[in-house]
Amino acid sequence: MSLVNFTTREITCKIVYYGPGRSGKTTNLHYIYGRVPDSRRGRMVSLATQTDRTLFFDFLPIDLGQISGFNTRFQLYTVPGQVYYNATRRLVLQGADGVVFVADSQARQLDENLESLQNLQSNLLEHGVDIRTMPLVLQYNKQDLPRELILSTADLDDALNFRGVASFSADALHGVGVFETLKGVSEMVLKRLAAGSTA
Amino acid sequence: MTTALNAKYTFDTFVVGTANRLAVTAGRTVAENPGSAYNPLFIYSGSGLGKTHVLMAIGHAAKKLAPTLNVEYLTLDEYVEAFHAAIAAGQGDAFRRRFQNVDVLLVDDVQFLSNRKEMQSELLRLTEALQGAGHQIVLTSDRPPPEIADLDERLISRLSGGLVVDMGVPDYETRVAILRRKAEERGTSFQPGVLETVAGLEFANVRELMGALNRLVAFQAVNDQPINAEATKQLLSAAAAAARAAAPVAPGVSSGSGDEFGAFLADVTVTVGKAVEAWRARVGEAVLRWRGEGYRTHRLERLLEQETPPAVDEAIAEFVEDVERLKALETEVGQLDPQASGESVFRDPERMSEAEEAAAQVRAGVAPPPGPSGAFPLVGYAVGSSNEVAVSAVRAVLDQPGKKYNPLVLVGKSGLGKTHLLNALGLELARANGAVVACLSTQAFIDELIAAIDGNRVDWWRARYRRATALLLDDIHLIAGKERTQEELFNLFNLLQDRERQLAFTAPAHPNTLTGIEERVVSRLEGGLVAELKEPDRAVKRAVLERLLAGQNVTPEPALLDYLADRPTDSVRSLVGVAQRVVGAAAAEDVPLTAGLAREVLEGQAPREARRSSGFRTSGIVVSSLGGIKSREKMVWDWPEVADRLIEELR
Question: HEC string of B133-185?
Fold first, then answer.
């Protein structure tokens, strides 16, 4: 999927929220959905199980309107976190312009985070994408939980952020860090517009 | 071809202030009395101050008052394109007729006439025609006529001849009025003081003012809350600062309002602005720069439409390279042929090969137009009372070429030496430094034009003659009925006369007695001096005979000269013919050349063979292309023997 269509003068950003199960990807989207004016957002599509687990994926289209003469749209997706939905994850990842990796800050979830991160890398590779070239940010969610349960952002950076990408501390349920994360990944994605054009 | 009038641009929607009142009043007057009040009406102002609005408003108003009026609005560029298309399709005349039938012609952006000589003369002609027919013409430009670069003086005076009004930047009150009107039109209301704040800010023109208003409207719509005067100021000044990055919404304005999405949007906008603009800006910059210099930038503009971000810098570099090459070509061509250098092909990097070809053509075409014949020097011209007026006129012309008698028309019957005198004038004029004297028969002139039309190189043909420092046409009456040649001659005539270049013509009779020639051409021919050559007097005849016989190494006895000079002759040419017959007879019979022999030859039975061998056009039927010309020389004087005629016919 092309990011910028100069013919129709459209910019379409596909951003995928990735991460282990229950790390808060859908929560991020819900918070964003709640902040976007009605006129700007499409219907949020959520295929969830009865226990509110994402079964297939969430999809939130946002219309940012005319920016620099371009009709700009963001499409936010989440993937199902559970290990056994890998085919779905790979599908959703297709054509992504940027990825937000939502990590669960709880200390006991560290392995799941690592596993999911590796899964992201291999799934991208399946699409022929090197993770190092993909705009990627990390979000350390659930930082509002008691200190003893979670790892600090510094620890998480040590454990997960070996690529040294931008990372954001977040409490998605209450919206802390949600837009910062989105902004972070958006800027990375959009900056490729300039980089790509000069290549 | 013609753009429809924008329904929104009427006088009712135009906010009148002190800066534009005169223009609007003049416009209304013109709309009410097309063709009679101010014609042409010329409105100029900086960009975005409402020229087009007023121009279209005139069209609407005129149409409203008289629905049958034929009102046409178009920009100069559209006019030029249409003209070129019409010429290419061979419909030039139909094109002209079509525009001459327009009752109210509204032409926008005429400043683009710079360096377009051909269009200037076309517009001049059109303006003259429209004015002549009492039709209205209204033009707009971003500057007054004298300041349009490289504009023909005649066009300047023509355009300035009606009324020239300017429209300034609206004052504060007008700005407030404009903003109120526009906000109302959009159904938006603002808190008190907001519009006043906007009006108080510096804007170069109304279009920018509208841009500011649009931002406010958008801002209010997005934020669902009315903006106040203070925020307006912030928004607009921030926007003005960010304007170069073409960001429609200023960053940071809505931050701190708890509107996370708004802040996000603002950030993304800036990022997109930077990202998209970064390479687009470079292309846009190049487009603006080269378009500003008058080059076609479609190639760069197409870059912006491409799906995948192209190799912008290479493309720009390539474009610049091509433009440089075009510049070089244009300079080269300009030195050879100033007219051709203005051609659009030298401004379009997409037509490099055509430009090269055109340049090659010009290089090949620098061959000067046909010059005078060296066989007719002025020193060899016999002067007498019968032709001294004409000869002294020629001498006066040689003293001050282009200034004194321009044009000089030599009239006289055939064989009196007009061609000789014309060529002699040409030879003398050609002595001047850098002189390019075009001296040829009108028939050759017509044939060249036809060949040029056929070969699709009329421009080149024109350029060739426009370079001439003098144009001398023999037998100008031959253009009778040749409309296109008359047209071309008319334009060429005007151009050369304007540049004080000498024009001279010969005709069998006074121009105003010639038929089949357009009035405008005739009047121009009459505009200088019409000098008549009469039947040769005795002095001329003697001089001619002496020179002729001397040229054949014959020493005549004075009695022969007297006898021949006293014989009635109506032209030098027939005199020469007569003398040749005598010389031929003397040679054939191997007897001395005496008056007695001459008398015998001319009055007795003429030796047939000798006469035939003369090779001079002294008898026989010459068909003139102009039926009305009565030349005694072209009458048949000596009918050949009947037997001869039969043989001639059998051949």
Answer: CCCEEEEEECCCHHHCCCCCHHHHHHHHCCEEEEECCCCHHHHHHHHHHHHHH
